[in-house]
Amino acid sequence: LQGGLALLEGLRAHGNRPRFVFSSSGAVFGGPVPDLIDDDFAPTPLTSYGSQKLIVEALVQDYTRKGFIDGVSIRLPAICIRPGKPNKAASGFYSGIIREPLNGVEAVVPVSRDIVHSSASPRSAVGFLIHAAEIDSDRIGHRRSLNMPGVFCTVGEQIEAMARVAGPQYLRLLRDEIDPAIERIVSTWPKGYRATRAKDLGFTAEANFDEIIRIYIEEEMPDRLPPVSNR
Is 94 an annotated catalytic residue? Predict the structure, then answer.
């Protein structure tokens, strides 16, 4: 929160009303929430993380209104499959349960497989950011927070997509082990957005999770998938 405020104050002092794109989160919405959140659904965060994101959104809105910046906040879905090593983020397993098996490493599924979430690839995330940076300000209007589109699916459907795209042998590298703390956190997050405004403004994401997996393979392991023992 303090970092966001300091950055906004620096831009205000610099002048020139720059375009400012803030990466926000679905954590601004607290439960109970509908299966698909409309653009008019009120954000009521249930975590400190979500509260901080919502406060910075309000600052972006206000600094834009006063003409200090030309800001827009984009609420991202889960971005996966993220390359690299696992991180401590509560949402990190969404990437890990696909990334680790595809790289021949065992992974834990820490939540129930019927948990629903919305995802988009890192490629789409980059596209969201670039489009938000370049879109005509008048098209955005005075409401400066936008829900981004994504693929609406369960954790189980995400795993089934891996079996379709890469092969069922990779399922052997998954182990279900519920982590109550992670499940409690992600169960309060929105399952997905209708993202009507964002789509009308030209923001796009993948059509299904199979496509997200293919993008990861294309970008991170284009030569081949690692073998998995049939034993």
Answer: no
